[in-house]
Amino acid sequence: MLNVRGLSVRYGRSVRALEDVDVEVGNGVLAVLGGNGAGKSTLLRTVSGTVRMHGGAVTSGEVLVDGTRVDQMDPAAIVRRGVVAVPEGRQVFARMTVEENLRAGGLGARSAAARASARARVHELFPVLVERARQRAGLLSGGEQQMLAIGRALMSGPRLLLLDEPSLGLAPQMVARIAAIVRDIHAQGTAVVLVEQNATMALQVADHAVALEVGRVALAGPASELAASDEVQRLYLGGHAESAEQAAAEAREAERQLSGRTLARWTS
Ligand code: ATP
């Protein structure tokens, strides 16, 4: 559904944030790995049409959604094509209630029926958002705000969800829950691009992965192959063998608690 071909992006004259990047997403989960400043957020901004708002410009290449070029479209037009981003930093409307945040996300839904169906899906994925419906979003915990940010994006019924570092700053158990939620979202038929510095988590959730280094694709392939490669172990998983095992156990437990309930309904 998403094809990024030969994409180069600059900020101003001097910062080359992406150089000749190729990325493809069918209907799976693609993990985008890389250290600080590698170009991960720039890739998501370009796909969602917001890179110009950050002072960036596409200098060559193209971004296609279902075969149509979107790299010069405005963000709202890209949302209408089913591509919705959750930017880094849990950007919820802090003074609005949880319910109002979700309603704002639903403004992009195709119809009232689609909105109602999306709301039911969000409530099943995130029961805590039902419990906290009338609470101000700014009073939620970090993990709950991340769930609200994802839930708000799901309210418009996206076919491709772009997640920028959803695990950032969260405790390990909450990271495991977010991982399980991403799996559920994918199992329900939404493709996902998952930008993460937490390579352990991302490679467990994704089926394919790319690693960016200083704006270029350094590695690409099936997530299981990348997770097993010496280079990825050294660069992105080094010294985390124990925590990787622990994260895997936590992810399995969180998924066991979450999935049975929601999957049956949404995969049918
Ligand atoms: P991080 O994990 O730290 O968020 P990243 O992989 O998401 O990093 P980007 O934020 O895409 O990387 O940044 C890629 C490069 O572009 C970096 O050199 C960064 O300093 C630069 N950059 C990012 N945003 C801007 C901007 N608005 N104006 C100028 N330069 C920018």
Shape: globular
Strand order of the largest sheet: 6-7-8-3-9-10
SSE arrangement, N to C: EEEHEEHEHHHHEHEHEEHHH
CATH second-level architecture of the largest domain: 3-Layer(aba) Sandwich
The H-level CATH homologous superfamily of the largest domain, spelled out, is P-loop containing nucleotide triphosphate hydrolases
Family: Belongs to the ABC transporter superfamily.
Protein name: Branched-chain amino acid transport system ATP-binding protein
Domain ABC transporter: 2-239
Pfam family, one: ABC_tran
Describe this structure in words.
This protein has 268 residues and is an alpha/beta fold. It has 2 domains: 1-82 and 161-166 and 193-253, P-loop containing nucleotide triphosphate hydrolases (Rossmann fold, 3-Layer(aba) Sandwich), CATH 3.40.50; 83-157, no CATH class. It has 11 helices and 10 strands. The protein has helices spanning 40-48, 75-80, 98-106, 112-125, 127-131, 142-154, 172-187, 199-205, 223-228, 230-235, 241-267; strands at residues 2-11, 15-25, 29-33, 56-65, 68-69, 83-86, 160-164, 191-195, 208-213, 216-222. The strands form 2 sheets. It has a 6-stranded mixed beta sheet, sandwiched between helices. A 4-stranded antiparallel beta sheet has the order 2-1-4-5, with helices on one face. The two termini are 22 Å apart. The chain binds adenosine-5'-triphosphate (ATP). Keywords: Amino-acid transport, ATP-binding, Nucleotide-binding, Transport. Residues 2-239 form the ABC transporter domain. Residues 246-268 are annotated as: Disordered.
